[in-house]
Amino acid sequence: MTTAPPARPAKRGRPGYDLESLLAVAVQLFNERGYDGTSMEDLSRKLGISKSAIYHHVPSKEELLRLAVDRALDGLFATAALARELPGSALTRLEHLVRGSVLVLVERLPFVTLLLRVRGNTKVERTALARRREFDQLVTDLVAEAVHDGELRPELDPATTSRLLFGMVNSLIEWYRPQGGSGGEELAEAVVAVAFDGLRVRPQNPE
Amino acid sequence: MTTAPPARPAKRGRPGYDLESLLAVAVQLFNERGYDGTSMEDLSRKLGISKSAIYHHVPSKEELLRLAVDRALDGLFATAALARELPGSALTRLEHLVRGSVLVLVERLPFVTLLLRVRGNTKVERTALARRREFDQLVTDLVAEAVHDGELRPELDPATTSRLLFGMVNSLIEWYRPQGGSGGEELAEAVVAVAFDGLRVRPQNPE
Fold first, then answer.
1. Quick check: B161 and A194 CB within 8 A?
2. What structural domains and CATH numbers belong to chain B?
3. Is A144 on the interface with B (CB under 8 A)?
4. What value of ipTM does the predicted structure carry?
């Protein structure tokens, strides 16, 4: 079976690829060889279609990059928006945000991997980095609120706390590989447990 | 002042560079452009000396890579050896290992950064990856011992725990920048505190 059922209304184009499946292959190549190290020629060879068939779907390589990193960023911002709407303490919302971010990472692994490797050489990359900083600021603000409410340890400044927190989350791209669908929820719980309650067993572990 | 005092017995070579200062510049370039993306020509241009002057110090680009990643790996293994010799519980030794690894990272930041980006295209890279796996196994064994002793939470398997732990440690290369000498000890304490006791404030925080 070479024709994947289109996940969204198919654009015109050569049979066998819609924008979605083309994007998946492009992201795989970008992750393997680096964005700068991948040409439209490489992509055309990998897909087995001509460059003009690719340009039928997208105007440029940079547009493929934009679509890919937005897939990751949109997921993260949707999670942040949900977390902010939650009733409950700042800590509850922060835990929700961490859990949700792990799930986005697991579900959109190739897109998040690409996002985390973006270095800022093009306009699309600089925009992505700016959105990442905006997301980091949301996390830092929530950490600061939870520290202010006496729920999080105050010795660390909120920016350092949020970096350590998402350092752990983001490091998942280095080793996590999905195994048949499930596993994301468990992993998200594990990360939240380690981050907020630590690895040490306590005589009476408060729940 | 262009001639740095040699940190170790100077090899013959053009005045202005000993092996140590040459290695520092090479590692900086490798980190900026990638190892594959850096030629001896690039290095010669950056240093302002001829390629043959470089070959006076080292036989190949790969030998520079080997020296650099060994600088990181030797530091990590020395820390692991010290931790293993410590009296006390497995958890105490693990905390020591995490603290020491943060200090190695801070003190040898460019070398550890390079090590963590190694992908395994050459013999030197494959050897470095094998030593990284060996180090990971030391951490995992110590985690397993601490879980067995009832000191670490048993819900996670030891390999996942050690990945989350060193995910947090290794993520420091993404943002930590030394500011005038100190700061490493504090950062190491912060990482140990977050990893083992979590971010949450408890009514009675046992020390």
1. yes
2. 19-59 (1.10.10.60), 67-197 (1.10.357.10)
3. no
4. 0.82
